[in-house]
Write a structure and sequence with these properties.
Keywords: Membrane, Transmembrane, Transmembrane helix. The protein is an all-alpha fold. The chain is built from five helices and no strands.
């Protein structure tokens, strides 16, 4: 049995709080990420978006990878400096716009879940 709130409670939360609070939350998270020193807090905030948006708890991800692990830190740092900071801003904006369409919420949540990878090639 899932410990997720009911669909009614999640929908009510989205309508009353989730849609606008997520926009503010994502803006702060992105600004923190761009400051470089704020990256850990910004990425943590990004990972909390599905919960803030719709009270959806993240399911534990169990996945086998042939290559295993993350890209080296140097590669991830270069990615962030050249691509990640601006690509994540665009990605976040598109995801939030999809959130506001209501029918785009499933795709938006998928995009939010991919955001750590867009920012810094971090595999969640």
């Amino acid at each position: 049995m899932s410990d997720q709130p009911s669909l009614f409670v999640r929908a009510l939360w989205f309508l009353l709080v989730g849609w606008w609070a997520t926009g503010i939350w994502l803006s702060v998270a992105w600004l923190l990420t761009v400051t470089i020193i704020g990256i850990p807090l910004g990425v943590w905030m990004i990972n909390q978006v599905p919960m803030l948006l719709s009270l959806k708890r993240r399911d534990p991800l169990v996945e086998e990878r042939g290559s295993g692990g993350q890209y080296p830190l140097v590669v991830r740092a270069v990615w962030f400096l050249l691509v990640g900071w601006w690509a994540s801003g665009i990605w976040t904006g598109v995801a939030y716009a999809l959130t506001l369409t209501v029918v785009g919420i499933p795709l938006a949540i998928w995009m939010y879940n991919q955001l750590p990878y867009v920012v810094s090639l971090y595999r969640y």
